[in-house]
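LOG
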Amino acid sequence: MAKYGKKASTKVKRAMHERKRGELKSGRSGKTVKSRKQAIAIGLSEARRAGGKVPAKKSSKGRKSGGKSSKKTKSSRAKSTRSKSR
């Protein structure tokens, strides 16, 4: 059984053509999309909205956070307070 339906392939194909011509814009910001991966993601999300057969997005549980870890900042603060107290 195929993971993606025909609607998904047509939406991605259209998004890739628009990206090549420099006409594909991203969501709220409206900036021109230059990344191939981003163009595919836009095509798939449009296919989802149109009711095409597309697997659900991966959950954010398994992904790493983009920010700095809190452990690193805590340890640097602890070190600075120890050296000041001596």
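LOG (cont.) second protein
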Amino acid sequence: MYWKNVLKSNVTTIDELQNYIDLDPKEKSLLKKVVKRHPMSITKHYLSLIDFENPDDPIRKMIIPSVNELDLTGSYDTSGEKSNTKFIGFQHKYSQTALILSTHRCASYCRFCFRKRMVGVSSREIFRNLERAKKYINHHQEINNVLVTGGDPLMLSTKVIEKFLNRFTKIEHLDFIRFGTKTPVFLPQRILEDSKLLSVLKKYSKRKQIYFVLQIDHPKEITKELQAAVKKLQLSGIILNNQTVLMKDINDKPEVLAELQNMLVKVGINPYYVFQCRPVKRVKQHFQIPLSKGYQIVEKAKTMMSGHSKRFKYVMSHRTGKIEIVGIKDEEIYFKYHQAKDIRNQGKFFKKKLIESAGWLDELR
């Protein structure tokens, strides 16, 4: 397929990167150490969005390796994925949702990825048994949706994607199927040039509703190519939602966050979640902002948004559940379980003593 050939031109080495940015010998050596542990891969399309004259360009910060990735503060499994794995590549954390790690590959590798432990690194956690998944879901009638993620499932062949859809659309108690993807941002050609994929999506969206959960984190990512891909997906019956990670020096200005959410609505993408950046190893120190600051940014941004633009929940994906950051009053910060691993916590409202520097629930008392 044409899109697979396009991926062959990705920038994957620090030596290739030097064609775009100047690196002194020491920085070059350190970055080679970084990408040896967590590979770099950047599509030419995504590279074209970077203003290389601006060292603070947000696209640059999100996709180009940094020496800050040598900082090991944090964890490689902040959301407790290991404890929710029922068999290789298949997780069941929330009663209604089955999650499948379909691949460890993406069209490009975000430097803030919360699955940094595996994406671009190892296929050991990758799903291998479709029939076993089908049996598990059939035996768990409480499951009403499947999330196919990774990595990025649109890096799979259209034939494999169709296998997932063919199996899951036949399960009567499933209401919908989701694909978590950033491919329309990184590699819009995957959508624009693959009529077979679109026909498969259109075929199966008539059986069950299919959602694409996109990862768009900055207004610069909403290109004409992305918008064209969105239209083709919509015409194929796909509903598009978006989740954004709130990140230091990327989208942590209220004006930028508001512009992003407003633009999403304008092009037909539904705001879904704004995530507190997880305390992931090689990510936490240079991307995470404190919860107290994040809350203030989100609330100020909402004053610049329409009702449709601010439908999202500001949450942290904690090992105990998706916890909404609800408010701050005096010296306390208030939370609510939007989703809970333990059903007894569902909807639970609670508070903690506010610590201005805390970026995660475990840092609060």
